[in-house]
TrEMBL record:
Keyword tags: DNA-binding, Sigma factor, Transcription, Transcription regulation
Family matches, as SUPFAM superfamilies: Sigma2 domain of RNA polymerase sigma factors, Sigma3 and sigma4 domains of RNA polymerase sigma factors
Name of the protein in its database record: Sigma-70 family RNA polymerase sigma factor
Pfam name, any one: Sigma70_r4_2
UniProt domain RNA polymerase sigma-70 region: residue ranges: 28-96
Family membership noted in the UniProt record: Belongs to the sigma-70 factor family. ECF subfamily.
Taxonomy of the source species: Bacteria, Pseudomonadati, Pseudomonadota, Alphaproteobacteria, Hyphomicrobiales
Origin species: Bradyrhizobium quebecense
All copies of domain RNA polymerase sigma factor 70 region 4 type, residue ranges: 124-175
Length: 185
C-alpha cells in the first residue's frame, strides 16, 4: 500500500468514525486528485476547467454522502475512482459528449473495470434492467455483465450484431434516464 493510499484510508476511517477535521482533510485531498483526473479526461473532449470543477464538486458530494458504504477491508482509491468514473460517465451522457467525442475504446476503459461492486448494486441493476424491453436486457446482460463479444451476444439473444449494438446503446441511455429519475424509455 502506498503512503498516499494509507493516509487517505486513515482519513476515511476517521471520517467514518465522526472526526470532522479528518473528513475535511480527506475531502480537500481528494478534491486535488479528482481535479487533475477530470481536467485530463475532459481536455480530450475539448471541455474546460469549469466543467472539471463541477465534476469535482459532484464527486466530493457523492463521496461525502456515500462514505458509509466504503468497506474498510478494501483499498480506498479504487472506491473513490469508481465514484469519479460514474460521475464522469453521467456528465458525458448528460452533455451528449460521450457519443460525439469519446472514442468507444476509451469508453470501454471507463466502464469495463468495476473495482467495487457489491451485491446491492447488482440487485439494483438487475431490477432496473427488468424495466427495459427483452432485447435490450439480453444485449446489455450478455455484453456488459457477462463479458461476451457482440458476436456471441448476437447468437445468445438471436439478434444481428448491429441490433445488439443498437440495443446496448439505447438500453444504456434508458438506464441512465431511469437512474436519473426520468421516465424516458
Amino acid at each position: 500500500m502506498t503512503t498516499a493510499e494509507h493516509e487517505l484510508k486513515q482519513l476515511m476511517l476517521a471520517s467514518q468514525d465522526g472526526d470532522a477535521a479528518a473528513h475535511r482533510a480527506l475531502l480537500e485531498r481528494l478534491s486535488r486528485h479528482l481535479r487533475a483526473y477530470y481536467k485530463s479526461k475532459l481536455a480530450r473532449t475539448g471541455r474546460g476547467a469549469a466543467e472539471a470543477e463541477d465534476l469535482v464538486q459532484e464527486a466530493v458530494l457523492a463521496i461525502h454522502l456515500q462514505r458509509h458504504t466504503y468497506d474498510p477491508a478494501q483499498p480506498l482509491t479504487p472506491w473513490v475512482h469508481a465514484v469519479a468514473r460514474y460521475k464522469l460517465i453521467d456528465f458525458l451522457r448528460r452533455t451528449r459528449t460521450s457519443r460525439a467525442d469519446v472514442p468507444i475504446d476509451e469508453a470501454d476503459d471507463i466502464t469495463a473495470h468495476d473495482d467495487h461492486i457489491g451485491a446491492e448494486s447488482s440487485f439494483d441493476l438487475r431490477r432496473l434492467l427488468k424495466q427495459l424491453p427483452a432485447n435490450m436486457q439480453c444485449a446489455i446482460a450478455a455484453v456488459k455483465l457477462d463479458g461476451l463479444s457482440v458476436a456471441e451476444a448476437a447468437q445468445r439473444c438471436d439478434m444481428s450484431e448491429s441490433s445488439v449494438k443498437v440495443s446496448i446503446h439505447r438500453g444504456l441511455k434508458a438506464l441512465a434516464a431511469l437512474i436519473a429519475g426520468r421516465t424516458e424509455p
